[in-house]
Structure formats: C-alpha cells, structure tokens
Specification:
The chain is α+β, with helices and mostly antiparallel strands. It has six helices and 14 strands. It has a five-stranded mixed beta sheet with strand order 4-3-5-6-7.
Length: 301
C-alpha cells in the first residue's frame, strides 16, 4: 500500500520545527480532546470555518504559528464524515477515514504540490474505488470545537494525532519564528519547492468563523476570484481556441484574462458562470488587476 507523504517542508523547516513546535518545556499536557459540541451531528449548511486574510507587508511573525499553504481542498471532519467548506459530503472510501477520531477537525485534502487539478478530478468523480485515494492525505491544522487559544488546541492535536490509527491522517507542521527575515526566507524556500506560500495562525486566537487577522496567508503574489462572463476567441497560434476570458471580480470590476492557460485549458476553458482564481500584482487607478494570470478553477465542491 502506498501512503501519502508525511513531510511537507525541507530540512530548514524541520530544524526550526524540532526546536519550536513542541512549545516550552513542561507544556506537554494537553487539554481534553473530547468533542465540546456533539461530534458527528448532521450538517445542513456549510460548516462555520475560520478564513484567512492577506498578510500585511510589515507583519512581525512572533505572535503566529506558521505552516505551508497547501494547494488542496479545504475539508471539515465532523467526527463521522468529511464535508467541503460549502457543506457537501465527500465520497471518501470507508478505509480512508477508518480509525479517525470523533473530535471535529479542520484541515485540507492534499495530493502534493502542483496537483490541485488531479485532486479536483478525484473528488468530482466521487468514486471511492478510485486508486488515487491511496495517494491522498488529510492534513489537519485545527480542531474547531476544542476550547482555548490556537496554541493550546495545537498541543491537543499533537497529543490526539501522535500515533494516528490511519496512515492518511496527518498533523500539518507548524513552527514559530520571531524574525521577519526568517519568515521571508521560509516563504522563498517553499516557493522554490513549488509550494503556494505560508499560513500564519495567531497563537492566542480562539476559533471564530469568518475572516480576521488571526489567520493570514502570505504569498509571493496576490490572488483573487472572479466569475467567467464570456469566452473571447483566440488569434494566431490560438485560433480555434480560447484567447481570453472576460471575467468580473467580486468588486464588480470586469477585465480580460488572457495569460496563464495551458493548451488543454484553452481547448476546454472554464465554463461560463464558473469561478476562477487568478494571480496579479497590484491594481490600476481604476481597480483593474495588473499582470493578471489564470491560476486555476475555484473549489466549488
């Protein structure tokens, strides 16, 4: 049986991790990991998840735990089943979640760096017999129903998942650092290895649904989402294929998005009405994203 990889960062991070992730000496007694709210209760709407804001340029990382930002699918484990952030059940094989705890968990389904398209395909096929499930892991980064600040919840998760019964259940590596230069060095390292960026989770933060500065995402570029309004035809070597998308952002700004597409994506572009993620570097005086490039289809599961 092929199991998902355990480690996400290169040796530099593990050097930091070995000195920091376990916290101060003598702080290894976790709080109770029993579900504070009825684990496994049936959900009729999207789970109330904590969401990230863009990391300020002048951030000082000393108050935060830092992890890799995975290019996977956000998923909520309610103690019995996996659910997408939109509230849809995920057709995971029974053996994939066998032995998982009754404690609700917040995490990400992940196949590896640069595999988001494959992962979306796997989940859309909704076939528990698909052999690609053997390559997947659930990377846990929080426990929404545990009491106390994030640092305390993380300690409890370390205890809960110290010897998981499932090889597909992983605790995402979290580190502490005090210098912004070290943070930027780690960001550059992750980027060189094909990663998206970093997540910063405030040590003192309670689990609260919605966006706040308690959870930040740090990337070497900005990204945003837009709705596809039209397919604009290509010219020259793109004749007969997509030339650009006409898209509209959540702020109502419309613009042409013509770069970042593979040949396969130009032949079979994102459908009208779908949502896509694009990267960019700043905006014009009229609010139009500059140097915008297609990144991927948005997770609509």
């Amino acid at each position: 049986m092929t199991c998902a990889p355990r480690f996400l960062f290169a040796p530099l991070l593990y050097t930091i991790l070995s000195a920091s992730v376990y916290g101060p000496a003598g702080a290894d007694t976790p709080p109770s990991v029993a579900g504070a709210v009825g684990a496994g209760a049936s959900l009729t709407s999207a789970p109330p998840l904590m969401l990230a804001m863009i990391c300020p340029a002048a951030i000082e990382p000393g108050d935060y735990w830092i992890s890799e930002k995975l290019d996977g699918i956000r998923a909520y484990w309610d103690g019995q089943r996996l659910i997408t952030r939109n509230g849809n059940p995920i057709a995971a094989p029974a053996w994939f979640t066998a032995g998982w705890p009754a404690e609700p968990l917040d995490g990400e389904l992940w196949l590896g760096r640069g595999t988001f398209g494959r992962l979306m395909g796997l989940l859309h096929r909704a076939d528990p017999q698909d052999p690609e499930w053997r390559q997947l892991s659930y990377q846990v980064f929080d426990a929404p129903h545990l009491p106390g600040p994030f640092g305390t919840r993380l300690m409890a998760l370390r205890h809960l998942l110290k010897a998981p019964a499932s090889p597909y259940l992983r605790l995402l590596a979290q580190v502490r650092m005090t210098q912004r230069t070290a943070l930027l060095a780690l960001l550059a390292q992750v980027q060189r290895q094909g990663g998206e960026g970093l997540m910063l989770h405030r040590d003192s933060a309670l689990y609260r649904a919605g966006r706040s500065e308690d959870l930040l995402k740090l990337k070497p570029y900005q990204d945003a989402e837009a709705r596809v309004l039209a397919h604009l035809p290509g010219k020259g070597r793109f004749t007969g294929m997509l030339g650009a998308l006409l898209v509209e952002t959540e702020q109502g700004v419309r613009f042409r998005l013509g770069s970042g597409f593979s040949t396969a994506e130009r032949r079979d572009p994102p459908p009208l009405g779908s949502r896509i993620t694009f990267r960019y570097r700043g905006v014009s005086a009229h609010g139009v994203p500059r140097f915008a490039s297609f990144l991927r289809m948005r997770d609509e599961l």
